[in-house]
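Slide 14.
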Amino acid sequence: MTDDFRRRCAAFFAAHGQHPEAVPSRSRDPAAYVAAARDHQRALHGAGLAGITWPAAYGGLGLGPEFRRVFDEEAAGSETFADLFTIGFGMCGPVLLALGTEEQRRRHLPPMLRADEVWCQLFSEPGAGSDLASLSTAATPDGDGWVVTGQKVWTTYAHHSDRGLLLARTDPGVPKHRGLTMFVADMAAPGITVRPLRQATGDAEFNEVFLDDVRLGPDDVVGEVGGGWRAATLMLANERVALSDNPIGSPVTLDAVVALARRHGRADDPVVRRRLGEAYVAQQEVDLFARRIAAEVRVGNDPGSLASVGKLAAARVARQVAALALEIAGPEAVAWDPDDPDGGLWAYGELYAPSLSIAGGTEQIQRTILGERVLGLPREPQADRDVPFRDLRRSG
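Slide 15: predicted structure.
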């Protein structure tokens, strides 16, 4: 059966596959990149190749993880536009599958797979990053619905998103972890303002989002009222899985660095060859580990702390490859001919790589998780764990 599926995948990429360098630049022309991404995903959906492991009732194919591996193998070398869709397919979709109502699944999952709706996650705030449970965006009951006021920040692709999963505080009278609720938010709703943030790379993928008296209905609650922390931890676990499943998030791939070494006549340099070999081994380790995590998720198992291990390793490899590219490129990494097709790539990769240590929870957070859940070390003391949120002393 997988042989027939492989032929379908091969035929699709023969007809629609694009080399990553042939698609619009997400940095220089983000609108064109998003349009190309939507077109690609719609073509996938039309070919019956979207949502491979998602239930057929919600637009997926209902197939096993072995089919996803076949797809990934045939997609190798082609642009998959994972940057735009990872949050929807890798994070929001799984949360809706696990905690959403039947109506929510049928309403939101098929449009997500067709790229009619791009999704973001509205979690971090200016005063609640690593300590997400300290968020202060408030959802106040109003009739049978809610009115939301607050601010989110570092929201990836919010300016291109149609929907988002929003975490807000619905009960300030209980400890901070117990007073949260997750909602589906329409990003075009009155009261939502999105402002892109310029990054060190020159991109503006992140955004700050202002919510001023945004009205949400009772059907927008995901899971239970007051059960937002469970939903949030589920989403963050899926985020770490998604990040560990895409080891080199930077456009500076190991193949590109090998080609760079050859152009500079350093492919036979024993030091460079050794470092390339080390990077190759590290990448293979991460790839194999990512397959293990993905297989656990696709058969319904919770990968637990494995996701934190994978995320740490993936971020380390990205920094390793970016640093090696910078060393080989030499002066070309900081000053380049505008006509050079790789102009700026190596500097971009070096500036981009550190972000992978932060996305999905900082390395310090991941190491704390591993220390407590794998090594059995005592938990960090939390003096505010049982204090009602409204009684906490907060800066600002």
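Speaker note: Residues 161 and 297 are 25 Å apart (CA to CA).
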